[in-house]
Structure formats: structure tokens, C-alpha cells
Design goal:
With 348 residues, the protein is mainly α. The chain has 13 helices and five strands. The strands form two sheets. A three-stranded parallel sheet has the order 1-2-3. Strands 4-5 form a two-stranded parallel ribbon. The longest helix is centred in the last third of the chain and has 28 residues, at 319-346.
């Protein structure tokens, strides 16, 4: 009998890994501290995190170990990014009374469970994760031939399973990571007994936000609008955002379905505004800059409100350190118990 007989391998397909937030008692997610948060984070994740606080016990962590997988050669700004990141979380509505907010590297049990998993998971499972080759192609110029980069989905599995999460809020492109986590749980449970639940992807309503160059908004691509950008910077960035390539001249009609700017209209503009700019685009009755101005106004209004709340939290220097200290204690209590249970199951 082959060594992995009895395991229901899926080839990292995603059709099984979806669940409603109403069914999740524990939810886990995190963000890398690699610079300023941007509209992609806000609309792709953070707004949904805020909603989840009313539906589940939430663990939101600063993924500084994950940041090392791509930023290991330049860690100078990592610690400096922690406080701004937490302040942004508070400003958009994360509540430390309803969520456990902590720094990943302050919970050593994450690394311990990751090590335990690394002893039992075949390397080909990691190589099949789609983002492994995709990020290598996108982030050329960096040496990503490290175990840390190959194995970061396994560290993600430890992050999730250590709190026995049932739901992981993700975009559809991240579902393969959740499916790998389910496979890790199945393999561990088959070898050592039932310890871990199989979490499912909680596919959130968050939009896939385009950057100024039309690709997915990302700090790595230099195409992001930061939550900290002032009105002038927001206008400058979004005013030069790429549009439908059909519109070479002002008189050329376009198609909103092929325009990255319209994706932002779908997030920020009213139904009436979307109808107006759509008609103007198709008929060339409106120029691209005038179209953008409708959306830019709403982006600026939202960011100004966030920045005002952020300033209030920042006025108390102890806010972030107190939140992270309390979160560390709450998270470590749960993580320690899970690792002890896993070690006992393995006979350690």
C-alpha cells in the first residue's frame, strides 16, 4: 500500500474549500508588515474582517515571519511597519475587544507547529501551490530559491490550525492555500489521531482591486494607493491609472468591462454614476480623466475619514503596545495548548 493511501488527495483543487461565515466559530488571517496598507488591503480583506468580528472569534496577526520569505535580504523597515499597520487596522474598525490582534513572531508555537508539519508533508505538495511559481515570475531580481519561500504555505497551515480555525477569509486566488491546509490536517490526523479540524476557505465579498498599472494592487508592483496617501497623492496616482487600451484618442469609444478604472467605480461609485460613466465610455462622450474624477472623489472621502480616526488612535503612544501585549497573551494561551496536544499525539 502506498505511503499516502487513505488520504483524499485533491491536487489542490478548490471546489471543496468554501464555507459560509455563519458556520465558522474561529477565523484566522494576517497581513505582512512590508509597508503601507493600501486600497487592495482595505477592499479585499479589511472591510470583511470588520464584519467577521460580529460572527466569529477572530485572530488577526502581523505576519512578520511570512514577510521574511520575500524580504529576508532587507528587514530594516519591518519593525517600523508594525505600529502603522496596527493603527490602520484600528482606523478601519478592527476592535481589540472583539478580536485577538498579535504579532506572529511573538508566538513561537507557530514556528514549532510548522516544524512538526514540515516533517510529514511531501515537497511536491508545496511545489504545486500556484503562487509558488507565480510570485517567482513576478518578483524577478530576488533569490526566492529558499525553503522559507517554498514552505510558507506550510507556515500558513500552522498559523490556521494552531487556533483550530474553521474559516479562513481569502480571495479565490488563495483557496489553494486553504486546500493545502486541509490536506495537512488530514495527513496529521491519519498518522497520529484526530487533532485538527479541516478549515475551509471563507470566500469574502472583497473586490480584487486593480493597481494603477492594471495589475492586482500590490506594494511589490509599485502600483498601490496607500491608506495614508493625502488627497493630492491619491489624485496624482489615480489620474494616471491605465484605462481601456481602445481609447487611444479622446474620440475613441471604449468598453468599461475592459477598463481597470471601472473596477474601482464598482467599489466606490453609485449605481447612477456607474451608468453615466459607462455610457460615456462606450460613446466617447466622456474623457478618461473626467471618468476617473468621479471615482477619485469617493476614494479621497473614504481615506480622509480613515486618516482622521487613525490620528485619534495615534495620539495615545501606548495604544499599539498595549493591544499587542494583550493579544500575545490571549493567542499564546490557545497556541500552547494546541501544540501540547499535537506533541502528545506524535509521542513527543
Amino acid at each position: 500500500m502506498p505511503e499516502n493511501a487513505g488520504e483524499q488527495r485533491t491536487g489542490l483543487k478548490v471546489e471543496l474549500g468554501v464555507v459560509s461565515s455563519k458556520l465558522c466559530k474561529v477565523v484566522v488571517s494576517g497581513t505582512r508588515p512590508t509597508g503601507a496598507l493600501h486600497l487592495g488591503h482595505l477592499n479585499g480583506a479589511l472591510k470583511n474582517w470588520v464584519k467577521l468580528q460580529d460572527e466569529a472569534r477572530c485572530y488577526f496577526f502581523i505576519a512578520d515571519w511570512h514577510a521574511l520569505t520575500t524580504e529576508y535580504a532587507d528587514t530594516a523597515g519591518m519593525s517600523a511597519s508594525i505600529e502603522p499597520l496596527v493603527l490602520d487596522w484600528l482606523a478601519v474598525g478592527l476592535d481589540p475587544e472583539r478580536s485577538v490582534i498579535f504579532r506572529q513572531s511573538e508566538i513561537p508555537e507557530h514556528a514549532e507547529l510548522h516544524l512538526m508539519f514540515s516533517m510529514i508533508i511531501p515537497v511536491p505538495w508545496l511545489e504545486r501551490v500556484p503562487t509558488y511559481k507565480e510570485q517567482q515570475a513576478q518578483l524577478q531580481g530576488r533569490d526566492l530559491s529558499t525553503y522559507g519561500f517554498l514552505g510558507y504555505p506550510l507556515l500558513q497551515a500552522a498559523d490556521i490550525l494552531i487556533y483550530k480555525a474553521l474559516g479562513v477569509p481569502v480571495g479565490e486566488d488563495q483557496l489553494p492555500h486553504v486546500e493545502l491546509t486541509r490536506e495537512v490536517a488530514r495527513r496529521f490526523n491519519r498518522l497520529y489521531g484526530e487533532v485538527f479540524p479541516e478549515p475551509k476557505g471563507l470566500v469574502v465579498d472583497g473586490a480584487r482591486v486593480p493597481g494603477t498599472d492594471g495589475r492586482k494592487m500590490s506594494k511589490s508592483y509599485g502600483n498601490a494607493v496607500a491608506l495614508s496617501d493625502d488627497a493630492g497623492t491619491v489624485y496624482e496616482k489615480l489620474a494616471r491609472m491605465v484605462t481601456d487600451t481602445r481609447r487611444v484618442r479622446r474620440s475613441d469609444p471604449g468598453d468599461p468591462a475592459d477598463c481597470p478604472v471601472f473596477k474601482l467605480h464598482e467599489i466606490y461609485s453609485s449605481e447612477e454614476e456607474r451608468a453615466e460613466v459607462s455610457a460615456g465610455c462606450r460613446s466617447a462622450g466622456i474623457g478618461c480623466l473626467d471618468c476617473k474624477k468621479v471615482m477619485i472623489k469617493h476614494v479621497v472621502e473614504e481615506l480622509e475619514a480613515i486618516q482622521e480616526r487613525r490620528a485619534r488612535f495615534a495620539s495615545n503612544p501606548a495604544t499599539v503596545s498595549e493591544i499587542l501585549e494583550a493579544g500575545r497573551e490571549r493567542a499564546r494561551k490557545v497556541a500552547s495548548a494546541t501544540v501540547s496536544e499535537a506533541k502528545a499525539a506524535m509521542g513527543l
